[in-house]
């Protein structure tokens, strides 16, 4: 019902704008007018008696309105465009960069929005002198802040979404992420904003011209009103001829823009909302208590972590210690399972290794990948390493996939992050990979919502492996899948690990799942490693109370642990 109404308003708005555009384009050519010969023009003498009852006057007015429309609409469009450009640049910088840039730019926005609008407009206009460029500048100066603020809040909400995180994990650069993920998600919002800006610009142009701050040589609807006022048309019957028509033109155009803007907003909002629902990241609960650390190590390790601690400072309170002095080594072609309950620090560990901790996380310790200290790499070096040397299979496949891209596009983009392959080579690599993860080529044209949970997870695994990394972190890759699909995914990961000789960290809260795949299991409790060993050793010999608690929590049927029945 609501969208029908919006559609109807949109149609009316489009009709109004199209009519105005035709009038603007064809009017000056079709309506004969020479200001030098006709005294009906307000530029000549709007207040004299000649304005009333002459045969020429209607024609004069129409011709002046059509000529004025060009100036009013041009300034409206250019002013709106200028304010959008400034607003978008500042909004993107503040929202995406965050930190001091965000603080500084947002204070600037606050100051700009609190300044009194009308006096400021007059002061700037008088200071710069009457001209078209002054009008455009005043419009841009007064309107960029609103655009910047709205865009910044949108970017803040989308920059932590699954597809953006997944792209970052694949080593995509900032410009690439902005271009391919963030701007496509925010552009739909910018279109109605632009229409609003055009509406406001047309009104501002009229106000500035009416105040005498427009270009005296370029006639616009506002300047017709200015001359009408200057020659007392408001005090005589002449106002019907020289005030009402430009006023109607302004109202007509502003209403048309508002209707179209309202309709566009209705159209784009549902798309954005569904995107939000698909891409939301689940908030985490807090926990934290010290425990002892188990130590492993070796010079030949594919990945070696020493003394890794991560804290999340809290405003006005005690910081959350998400990881405490973790030491861990993963050997080449080894699968290390990390098991712990919710909030034990598993995802924080994955993010710390990928160097993707979210603010306000503070990290200490060393993380070496094949001998390279990851914490010392520059942003550029990190981007080159992510996806190519170390890849992340993120939690919840649907979050990692862009909902408006097909499987082919998701994989192509993953390749493009690192390599420039020809179309044929890209296609060959994608087909090879799909074969490896067990997806038929006919699904290349499918969108994520058309795939089952297991298939989506296979696509995410393919994306992680597309650039042939030697180390993979799988963060809860089976969460949300039913038991049989879980078993399939684990079998697939194990097969790929063996075929490709991958080293892997497999994170899960589900001990039976980890026991199926891991060569070695590390038990994490409230940010600390409390136990470690092979699956067999932990099942039989571990005396640690937390490990025993996890073992005892495995459901059993007739005395046998349930998932042992399911064969890989
Ligand atoms: N951005 C953050 N700000 C503040 N605290 C955080 C943040 N992210 C995580 N934490 C805290 O760090 C601790 C570890 O969280 P983490 O998400 O790593 O746990 P997890 O084991 O992965 O949990 P789950 O299995 O539920 O994903 C928790 O206490 C959590 O509240």
TrEMBL record:
It comes from the Bacteria. CDD domains: ABC_NikE_OppD_transporters (cd03257), TM_PBP2 (cd06261). The keyword Mitochondrion does not apply. SMART domains: AAA (SM00382). InterPro entries: AAA+_ATPase (IPR003593), ABC_Ni/Peptide_Import (IPR050388), ABC_transporter-like_ATP-bd (IPR003439), ABC_transporter-like_CS (IPR017871), MetI-like (IPR000515), MetI-like_sf (IPR035906), P-loop_NTPase (IPR027417). SUPFAM superfamilies: MetI-like, P-loop containing nucleoside triphosphate hydrolases. GO terms for biological process: transmembrane transport. One of its GO terms (molecular function) is ATP binding. Residues 69-261 form the ABC transmembrane type-1 domain. GO terms for cellular component: plasma membrane. Its main location: membrane. Residues 303-551 form the ABC transporter domain. Gene3D superfamilies: MetI-like, P-loop containing nucleotide triphosphate hydrolases. Keywords: ATP-binding, Cell inner membrane, Cell membrane, Membrane, Nucleotide-binding, Translocase, Transmembrane, Transmembrane helix, Transport. It is a multi-pass membrane protein; Peripheral membrane protein. This is Dipeptide/oligopeptide/nickel ABC transporter permease/ATP-binding protein. It comes from Cohnella fermenti.
